[in-house]
Amino acid sequence: MRETASVAMKADTASVAAQGASAINAIFAANPGSRDVTLALDQKQVLRRSLTMPSAIEDNLRATIGYDLDRLTPFKPEDVYFDAAVASRDPVKREITVDVVAARRRIVDQALALARAIGANVVAVVADPPERAAMSRINLLSPEDRVD
User: Fold this and answer.
1) Could you tell me the sign of the dihedral formed by the alpha carbons of 25, 29, 32, 37, in that order?
2) Which of its termini does the chain have fewer beta carbons within 10 Å around, N or C?
3) For 89-145, what is the HEC assignment?
4) Interaxial angle between packed helices 13-30 and 105-117, expressed in degrees from 0 to 180 and rounded to the nearest 10
């Protein structure tokens, strides 16, 4: 995966839309026949935490993090999209290290709306730079929007 184009989301709405159209058209031109895109959020747009947790919660990791989201972030749970992935395991201590990432819904929703309005099929929203996006284990799309 490589960065084909980027859009500065802090500009006015018309500029963002124009940049978005140009970016999506560049992506489609570079990859004819595919409308699948992965959106890579800027690191300044996400909150990332590393947590150590009991390994017993691994099977219900997302649900467990969801219950504690208001404690783990400065935001209300309904105001963010989040995901979590196991980064490492310590079988001796029966613990896992978990990478938790959250982004404000309005930021993700704005990027999704722009991409979809131009005909893109968003398959993932990641919190990694474009050069590492394909290897990301984090996907900030809501579970119902994910393509498995």
Assistant:
1) negative
2) C
3) EECCCCEEEEEEEEEEHHHHHHHHHHHHHCCCEEEEEECCCHHHHHHCCCCCCCHHH
4) 60
Residue 69 neighbours by CB distance under 10 Å: 18
pLDDT tens per residue across all 148 residues of the chain: 566 666 766 667 777 777 777 777 777 777 777 778 888 898 899 999 999 999 999 999 999 999 999 999 999 999 999 999 999 999 999 999 999 999 999 999 988 988 888 788 899 999 988 788 888 899 999 888 887 6
Give the SS3 label for residue 41.
coil
What is the signed CA dihedral for 60, 125, 87, 61, rounded to 10 degrees?
A: -10
Closest CA to 103 of 15, 16, 9: 9
Distance of CA 101 to the CA centre of its chain: 8
Q: Identify the CA nearest to 43 among candidates 120, 110, 104, 129.
A: 129
Contact at 8 Å (CB) between 38 and 12?
A: no
